[in-house]
Write a structure and sequence with these properties.
It is a single chain. This protein has one domain. Helices cover about 85% and strands about 0% of the residues. The protein is built from 11 helices and no strands. α1 runs antiparallel to α11 and α3 crosses α4. The chain is globular, with a radius of gyration of 21 Å.
Length: about 260
């Protein structure tokens, strides 16, 4: 029984990160499910509603894009999954604008979350970590290996805002923090593409001709590959973070910054 005890914290960390992986997939899975239901139940009516929304946003011009960025900053700072905004951006703004807005919005959100964690929420976050051993272990490890572990954390399924708050409270350097945040650009591109592909799928519906399905096949295949890529990268980063935490626990106690 005693021989199993040292493995218990590691097993618990794996369980918690696995739960994070599953939660990260849920928004994408729900989005695909909603598109399928919309196509089956509403058909062309759903397409008309989407066109109405697009026309309204287009009528707002640049202010529509500014409003989206503002909603993204506020929503993600309240721990709303970023991937939901990624899908919406791709569907409503297209690939180019969608990826650009996601990048700008998420960088602003990350900077805001860093500032809040460093100046206003530091004590509250540190108290919360007392009951969250996984996050406390991550924070301790990142202090010793800042940039590499920050990049890996950005690729895990943990909520990006949660990571920003955690890193801000840890006192990592702001320049490295923002640099690591850029790693998620590939995720933004995949999410925007999935949203864009979902819109194309909704427009075609299930009543298209054989030629329509053949034309749309690359879109569906690329969507599947994108989702698979996110899952595989997340799992690889998951394992690397666990190794870093184990190395930090095995070594001398981390020197915490004031």
């Amino acid at each position: 029984m005693d021989a199993d005890e040292p493995a218990t914290p590691q097993a618990e960390r794996r369980r918690q990160l696995l739960g994070g992986e599953l939660r990260a997939i849920v928004p994408l899975a729900l989005a695909v499910l909603l598109v399928v239901v919309a196509v089956i139940v509403l058909g062309r009516e759903a397409e008309r509603h989407l066109q109405t929304i697009e026309a309204t946003i287009a009528g707002l011009g640049m202010w529509g894009r500014v409003a989206f960025v503002g909603l993204l900053v506020v929503g993600t700072s309240m721990l709303v999954p970023e991937s939901l905004f990624g899908l919406v951006a791709g569907a409503l703004f297209g690939l180019g604008w969608g990826i650009g807005l996601l990048l700008v919005g998420n960088l602003i959100a990350a900077a805001l979350q860093y500032g809040l964690a460093r100046r206003l929420l530091h004590a509250r976050i540190q108290r919360a970590l007392e009951t969250r051993p996984l996050l406390r272990s991550i924070q301790s490890a990142v202090i010793r290996d800042e940039l590499r572990l920050q990049v890996l954390l950005r690729l895990t399924p943990l909520n990006p805002a949660l990571i920003s708050y955690l890193l801000g409270a840890a006192g990592v350097r702001f320049a490295g923090f923002m640099l690591a945040s850029l790693v998620l650009l590939s995720h933004y591109a995949i999410e925007a593409y999935i949203g864009h592909a979902g819109k194309q799928w909704l427009s075609r519906g299930f009543a298209g001709t054989r030629e329509d399905w053949q034309h749309g096949l690359p879109i569906y295949a690329a969507t599947a590959v994108g989702v698979l890529a996110i899952i595989l990268v997340s799992k690889a980063a998951h394992r690397a973070v666990l190794r870093a935490i184990a190395e930090n626990s095995a070594g001398p106690a981390a020197t915490r910054k004031p």
